[in-house]
Design brief:
Chain lengths: 373, 640
C-alpha cells in the first residue's frame, strides 16, 4: 500500500520535473511574493539567517508539494475529497480531546512531524464544499445550503473551540466562498448576512474573555496601552511611521528594537509597511490582487463545477488572509492569528498555502484534458 | 429514488447535462467577477487605511515612533572648582562609587533592599531617601541607594553580586573639601537636591545632577559653578535597554572655576590662632573690599553633608553647645563696645560737635544733666582731661558719653549708618544678618517704646542695643581704613570659564564717594587708633611689627551693664565679656583691615588683639613681596 503510494509520488515527481504543467504567471507571482517574504523576514528577524533558512526550506517543501499535487488530476482529488475531509475532521476531534483544558492546543504531534490539523481543513473544506455542490442542483436552495452549512459549521466549531478564531474564520470563509461562487441567490446572501449580524450580540457571551478583550481593545486601544492595546498601538505606530517611502530595509525601528510584538509572524506586515512605506504596501497589495485574479481566471477556465468551485474558493480565501491580516496591523480588525500569506514566518501556513496553489495548478493543467474528454 | 442514484452517480463522475454545465459555468463567471470586484474594493479600502496611517497620521505616528526609541539622556556638567587667591584647591570633584538599584530589573525592590542591608550597611536615612527618589523616577532608571561606597563595601557587594539583579556599583563624581572645617562657613557645601531645591530650580538644567550648593560660596555662586547641562540621544529597545548613542550630542558646559580672594594660608593661621575659642575673624583689603580671611570658630566638616549627613552626626552638631553650625561671621551677634569709639568720635568731628583738639574732663563718672544715674569710666576716678586721640587711645568713656549725648540719637544713628551698621554688608554670601544700629525708629518698631537719652549715652560706647556681626564691623573698619571709601566686601575674585587658560579677574564695582567729608577728621581718629597700639590699650600687640598699626580694642558686657553689676566685674572675667579687636595697617595707606571677635574673654587687648597680630604676621610676608614687586615695577617703568 505504502509502496504503491511512494511509487506514485516518485512517478508524479519525475513527470512534474520533465514536463511541469504550471501556470507560469501565477508561479512567477508566487515566487516574487516568497522572495519578498524572505527579504522582509530577514529584516524582521534582525538579520537572523536561521529564520530565513528555515522558512526557505518550508517554501521548498511547499513547492515540491505543489508540484506533486499539480500532477494529480482534479477528478482524482474529487474522488478522494470526502475521505480527506473526514480524516481531517477526525484529526481535529483528536486534537480537541487532547487539548481539553490546556488552553490553546492546536498541534498534533505525529512524532516525525508536528502540524495543526486545522491547516488541513483550509484545503479539505473548499474541496468538500465543491464536491458537495458539484452533485447538487445549482444555484443552491435552502436544503443544499443547510447541508453545506453543517459541513462548514462542524469543523469550524471544533477549531473555534481550540480556541483559534482566526483559522476558524478562514475555514468558514473558504467554505462560504464555494457557496457564493456556486451562484447562491443574492437575496439569500442578504438574508444570511442579516442573520449573522443579528447573531453577533447573541454569540458575544460565548467568546473567551481574551477574545472579547481583543474586540474591545480594537475599539479603544489607548484604554490599555501597555496591555491589550500594545499590539495595536505599536503596529499602527510602525505602519504610520513608515510614511510614503518607508524607513528603508532593516531600518524599521519599531521591529528592530522589539517594540512591535510578533514581528516575524502575525505582524510582519507592519514591518514591511514600516520599511517600505505606502508605496511598498500598495505594490504588495497589487501583487496579491494579481494572484487572486489569476487564480479566479484559472477557476473560470476550469471545465467542471467541482474544479471551478474549488479553485474559486481557494483564491478568494487568499483574499481573506490578506484582508484580515492587513486590517489587524492597521487597527481596523481585531487581533486574530491570521498570517500574511507567504510572508509571515511559520511552516504550516506556507505549506498548506502552496498545497492549495498546487490544486490550482492541477486544475489549470487539466483544463484541456477535461475539455477534450 | 432514481434521481438520487443519478445524482450520486453524477457527483462521482462529475457529469451534468451539457446545458446545465454551461449554465453553471456562466453563473460561476458572473460570480467570479462579482467576487473579484468585492475583493478589489475591500483591498482598496485597506489601501486607504494604510494611506490614512502612513500619510495623514504619519507625522504624529512618526513622532511616537521616535518617542518610543529615543531616550534623551542628560549629561550633567562637571561642577566648577573653587580655589583660594593663590590657587590652593578648596573644593574639588573626586571619583566615588555609589550603589544603584533599577526597580524594573530588581523585581521585588523592598526585598532587594532588605537583603542588601545584610551585605552592606544601609541606614534608615538611605532607605527614606531612596523611597523618596523612587517616586520621581521611572522604573527603568537607576536610583542611588548608598553613596560613597568604601573599597571594602564594593568588594563585599561584588562577591554577592549574582544575588542582586538590577543592583549596580556606579562611578560618579562627588564634591570634596580638602581643607575641611576651615572653609565650612565660607565655601559652604553642596548637598543632595531636596524637594525644596526642586521647587526652585530649573528642572531641565539639573536633569542628571544630584547635588546643589546649599551654603556659602557653593550656594551663592551656584549658577556659575553648575555649568550647563548637555544631552545625548540614545536609542533604546522596548525594554529601555540602551543600544547606541545617536548623533546630535550636546556636550555639557562645565561650571566655572572660582578663585576666591581668600588666602588659604592666612585663613589657616587665623583658625589656629583661635585655639578653639568660639568667635570669628575677618580680614579685608580696604582698597577693594576683597575678603582675605573669614573664620568662624568652631566649625564642622562640610564633607559630612555632601552625601547626606547621618542623623546621629547631625544631631551631634545641632546639640553642641558651642554651635559649630552657626556662621558667626554672618549671623554672630556681638555687642561692639569700645570698638565703636573711633566711629562715634569721627561722628562728633564730622557733625561739627567737636574739634580734634577739644577736651573733656574724665572724672570716672558721667551724668546726664538733671539725672542721678552715673555712667562710668573703666578706671575709678577717671582719666583727667583728654582730647580725642587720648580718648580713643585710652578708651575714655566720658568723652564718648558726652559727644553722643550732644549728638542725639537721630544724628548718631544717621551718621553711623554710613559705615554699614544695622544693615547687611552685601557680601556675596547668603543668609547675612543685619545686626542692630540703635535708633529711635528701631526701638519703636522693636519694642514700641520711646527713646531715652540714657540709651544714647551708652550707645556712644557701643553698648545697649548695639549688635554687630563680625563681618559688619570688619566692613566698617575697612571703609574707615580706606578713608571713608566703601567697598562692598566680596569673596569672588576671578573666574575661569572653559577655555580660559588663566582665571580672569572680575571687574571691581565702581568707586564710591567717601563717607567722610573732611580728611583731617579721618586723620585725627586714625592718630587715636595708632596711639591705641603704640601706647594705649593694645600696646603689646604692635611690638616688632614693621608697619604702623591703627587699632581699637573692645570689651563688651555679655549682659547689659548696670551700676550694681559693674562693681563685681572681676568675679569671672573670662565668662563676662565679649571681646573684640579691630585694626588696619599700614596706618597711613592701609592694605589690610582685621576684626577679631571672641564670644568670651578677659579683654579685647589680652585675647582678641593677639589673634589679630598673628593674622597680620601671616599676611606680612606676602604683602612685603608684593610691595617689592610693585616698587620694582614702578622703578623699571620710570627708567627710559
Amino acid at each position: 500500500m505504502i509502496d504503491v503510494l511512494l511509487a506514485q509520488i516518485r512517478y508524479r515527481l519525475a513527470s512534474a520535473w520533465r514536463a511541469p504543467r504550471l501556470d507560469l504567471p501565477l508561479l512567477g507571482a508566487l515566487l516574487l511574493l516568497m522572495g519578498i517574504g524572505l527579504v522582509t523576514l530577514y529584516s524582521a528577524s534582525d538579520l537572523d539567517r536561521g529564520y530565513v533558512l528555515a522558512q526557505g526550506l518550508r517554501f521548498v517543501l511547499g513547492l515540491v508539494l505543489m508540484l506533486v499535487i499539480s500532477r494529480i488530476p482534479p477528478s482524482a482529488l474529487r474522488n478522494w475529497t470526502p475521505w480527506l475531509y473526514a480524516a481531517s475532521v477526525v484529526l481535529l476531534v483528536i486534537v480537541v480531546m487532547h487539548g481539553e483544558g490546556r488552553g490553546a492546543n492546536r498541534w498534533l504531534d505525529l512524532h516525525f512531524v508536528r502540524f495543526q490539523p486545522s491547516e488541513l481543513l483550509k484545503l479539505t473544506m473548499p474541496m468538500m464544499i465543491a464536491w458537495f455542490l458539484n452533485g447538487r442542483q445549482l444555484p443552491p436552495g435552502w436544503t443544499t445550503l443547510g447541508i453545506a452549512g453543517a459541513l462548514i459549521a462542524v469543523p469550524a466549531a471544533l477549531i473555534a473551540k481550540q480556541p483559534d478564531l482566526g483559522t476558524a474564520l478562514l475555514i468558514v470563509a473558504s467554505g462560504a466562498f464555494g457557496i457564493f461562487l456556486s451562484g447562491l441567490a443574492w437575496w439569500r446572501i442578504g438574508l444570511l448576512l442579516g442573520a449573522f449580524a443579528a447573531a453577533i450580540p447573541i454569540g458575544w457571551p460565548f467568546l473567551h474573555d481574551y477574545q472579547k478583550d481583543r474586540v474591545l481593545t480594537l475599539l479603544n486601544p489607548e484604554a490599555d496601552p501597555l496591555g491589550n492595546g500594545w499590539h495595536i498601538i505599536q503596529s499602527k505606530i510602525a505602519v504610520g511611521s513608515g510614511g510614503i517611502w518607508g524607513k528603508g530595509w532593516h531600518h524599521g525601528t519599531q521591529s528592530r528594537l522589539e517594540f512591535l510584538p510578533e514581528h516575524t509572524t502575525d505582524f510582519i506586515f507592519s514591518v514591511f509597511a514600516e520599511e517600505w512605506g505606502l508605496i511598498g504596501v500598495l505594490l504588495l497589495l497589487a501583487l496579491y490582487v494579481f494572484i487572486i485574479a489569476r487564480c479566479l481566471w484559472i477557476a473560470a477556465n476550469a471545465r467542471d463545477t467541482y474544479s471551478r468551485l474549488l479553485a474559486g474558493s481557494i483564491s478568494m480565501a487568499l483574499f481573506v488572509y490578506v484582508m484580515v491580516n492587513g486590517g489587524m496591523v492597521t487597527g481596523i480588525l481585531p487581533v486574530v492569528g491570521v498570517p500574511l500569506p507567504l510572508v509571515s514566518y511559520g511552516g504550516t501556513s506556507a505549506v498548506s498555502l502552496l498545497a492549495g496553489f498546487g490544486v490550482l495548478m492541477s486544475i489549470h493543467a487539466h483544463r484541456r484534458t477535461l475539455a477534450t474528454h | 429514488m432514481k434521481s438520487l442514484r443519478q445524482r450520486i452517480k453524477r457527483s462521482v463522475q462529475g457529469h451534468k447535462p451539457i446545458g446545465e454545465a454551461r449554465l453553471e459555468a456562466a453563473q460561476f463567471q458572473r460570480r467570479a467577477y462579482a467576487g473579484l470586484a468585492i475583493i478589489v474594493l475591500c483591498l482598496i479600502a485597506l489601501g486607504v487605511r494604510f494611506w490614512i496611517l502612513q500619510v495623514r497620521q504619519h507625522s504624529e505616528l512618526n513622532a511616537r515612533s521616535d518617542a518610543n526609541r529615543i531616550l534623551t539622556r542628560p549629561l550633567p556638567p562637571g561642577r566648577g572648582l573653587i580655589y583660594d587667591r593663590n590657587g590652593v584647591l578648596l573644593a574639588e570633584n573626586i571619583a566615588a562609587f555609589r550603589l544603584e538599584v533599577t526597580p524594573e530589573q530588581a523585581g521585588d525592590v523592598q526585598e532587594t533592599v532588605t537583603r542588601l542591608g545584610e551585605v552592606l550597611p544601609i541606614s534608615d536615612d538611605d532607605i527614606t531617601r531612596f523611597n523618596a527618589q523612587r517616586k520621581r523616577k521611572r522604573s527603568y532608571e537607576g536610583i542611588p541607594l548608598r553613596l560613597k561606597l568604601s573599597e571594602e563595601e564594593i568588594a563585599r557587594f561584588s562577591i554577592n553580586r549574582w544575588a542582586f539583579p538590577g543592583v549596580e556599583v556606579v562611578p560618579y563624581l562627588t564634591r570634596s573639601y580638602p581643607l575641611g572645617a576651615e572653609f565650612a562657613h565660607t565655601v559652604g557645601y553642596v548637598g543632595r537636591i531636596d524637594e525644596e531645591d526642586l521647587a526652585a530650580l530649573d528642572a531641565s538644567e539639573y536633569a542628571g545632577t544630584t547635588h546643589i550648593g546649599k551654603t556659602g560660596i557653593e550656594r551663592s555662586y551656584e549658577k556659575r559653578l553648575h555649568g550647563r547641562v548637555g544631552y545625548e540621544k540614545i536609542e533604546v529597545n522596548a525594554d529601555h535597554r540602551p543600544l547606541r548613542v545617536l548623533p546630535g550630542r550636546v556636550a555639557p558646559v562645565p561650571g566655572e572655576n572660582l578663585y576666591l580672594s581668600i588666602d588659604a594660608h592666612l585663613q589657616e593661621v587665623t583658625e589656629a590662632a583661635f585655639e578653639g575659642r568660639a568667635g570669628a575673624a575677618v580680614a579685608i583689603d580696604p582698597r577693594n573690599g576683597e575678603v582675605l580671611a573669614m573664620v568662624s570658630v568652631p566649625s564642622f566638616d562640610p564633607n559630612l553633608f555632601v552625601n547626606g549627613i547621618s542623623s546621629v552626626d547631625y544631631r551631634g552638631l545641632l546639640d553642641d553647645e558651642k554651635k559649630p553650625l552657626l556662621n558667626r561671621l554672618l549671623r554672630g551677634t556681638f555687642t561692639p563696645g569700645s570698638t565703636m569709639k573711633p566711629f562715634v568720635g569721627l561722628a562728633g568731628l564730622e557733625l561739627g560737635l567737636r574739634k580734634p583738639e577739644d577736651t573733656v574732663l574724665s572724672t570716672g563718672e558721667f551724668f546726664i544733666p538733671g539725672q542721678s544715674r552715673a555712667y562710668r569710666d573703666d578706671v575709678r576716678g577717671g582719666f583727667g582731661r583728654v582730647d580725642l586721640v587720648q580718648a580713643i587711645a585710652r578708651s575714655v568713656n566720658t568723652y564718648f558719653y558726652s559727644v553722643s549725648l550732644d549728638m542725639g540719637i537721630d544724628r548718631f544713628s544717621g551718621y553711623l549708618g554710613r559705615f554699614g551698621f544695622g544693615q547687611p554688608t552685601g557680601i556675596d554670601l547668603l543668609g547675612e544678618g543685619s545686626g542692630v544700629l540703635p535708633s529711635r525708629e528701631w526701638k519703636r518698631a522693636r519694642f514700641n517704646q520711646p527713646w531715652y537719652p540714657g540709651e544714647t549715652v551708652i550707645a556712644g560706647i557701643g553698648q545697649g542695643y548695639w549688635i554687630v556681626t563680625p563681618l559688619q564691623l570688619a566692613n566698617a573698619v575697612s571703609t574707615f581704613a580706606a578713608r571713608g571709601v566703601p567697598h562692598t566686601p566680596h569673596l569672588l575674585r576671578a573666574v575661569q570659564t572653559e577655555g580660559d587658560e588663566t582665571p580672569v579677574l572680575l571687574p571691581l564695582a565702581p568707586e564710591q564717594a567717601s563717607v567722610i567729608a573732611k580728611p583731617e577728621d579721618w586723620l585725627a581718629v586714625q592718630r587715636g587708633m595708632v596711639e591705641v597700639v603704640r601706647a594705649g590699650t593694645a600696646r603689646a600687640m604692635g611690638i616688632g611689627f614693621p608697619y604702623d598699626i591703627a587699632g581699637k580694642t573692645g570689651t563688651a558686657e555679655r549682659f547689659s551693664r548696670t551700676d550694681e553689676t559693674w562693681t563685681s566685674i572681676s568675679a569671672s572675667p573670662i565668662e563676662r565679656h565679649q571681646v573684640l579687636f579691630e585694626c588696619f595697617t599700614p596706618a597711613d595707606a592701609p592694605r589690610i583691615a582685621v576684626v577679631v571677635a571672641l564670644e568670651a574673654g578677659r579683654s579685647g587687648a589680652s585675647d582678641a588683639a593677639p589673634i589679630a597680630r598673628k593674622m597680620l604676621d601671616a599676611w606680612l610676608p606676602g604683602d612685603q613681596q608684593r610691595q617689592r614687586i610693585e616698587t620694582l615695577a614702578t622703578a623699571g617703568g620710570s627708567q627710559p
